[in-house]
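Q: Here's a chain of 253 amino acids. Please give me its 3D structure as tokens.
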Amino acid sequence: MLKTQRVQGATMRDEFRQARVDLAAVLRWSARMGYQQGVCNHFSFLLPGDENLFLVNPEGFFWSELTASSLLVCDLDGGIVEGTGTVERTAFCLHAPIHRHNKAAKAALHTHSPYATALCLIEGGKLEPVNMVGFQFFGKIAYDENHQGDAQAVAEGDREVAILADNNILMMRNHGPMVVGTTIASAFDRLYYLEEVCKRQILAMSANRPLQHVPPHIVRRLADDDALSHAYADKHLAAIKRVLDREEPEYAS
């Protein structure tokens, strides 16, 4: 459990407000999608203009409860510099090393979402190039095949970020996925489609018939189109916020 500090009047600084609203939105939407397990799992975002501070959800709350102002600002050394509450130890040990060592991974989303986690539980289980909407992940997933238990030390986060390298997704065997992106929108869009593609692959595998693979040169056409992926991700997040603005407007408060 990390130390708590309250900075009066700082929790909704203008330069951080948009990041808070966007992260609260994807947390609320992920709750609707059933990605959270209990009050575990964590989403974080390296704040603009300061590579030592990241935004993270507080310990002990359902994602459906969280608002923009309830999110915490934590430094990479373990101190909470804005907000009231605590950060789960495993959240800090996984997320701080990612934000310290991989500056392209500005958003880091870790869940125990059912189907992506199920694929992590299958010996040798990997996302196969069989589903068109999953081609975007081709060559961009790292697999940690050596489960080390709960992440209670920063060294475990250092090990995981080394395995992640410059990929977008880390599938942690016997654990679950970690998805990263340069923006909150891009990371969440990947998380959503990762879960959807894993669901369809596992359903197809249940038929006990061979999967129909697609040739790599076709798969790469979508995998290499980062501009299209980012544009679609921005539209996806905008649509989510339109629904939340109507149905749960307090998320942005």
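Q: Can you summarize the key feature?
A: Strands lie at 42-46, 53-56, 72-75, 80-82, 107-110, 141-144, 169-172, 176-181.
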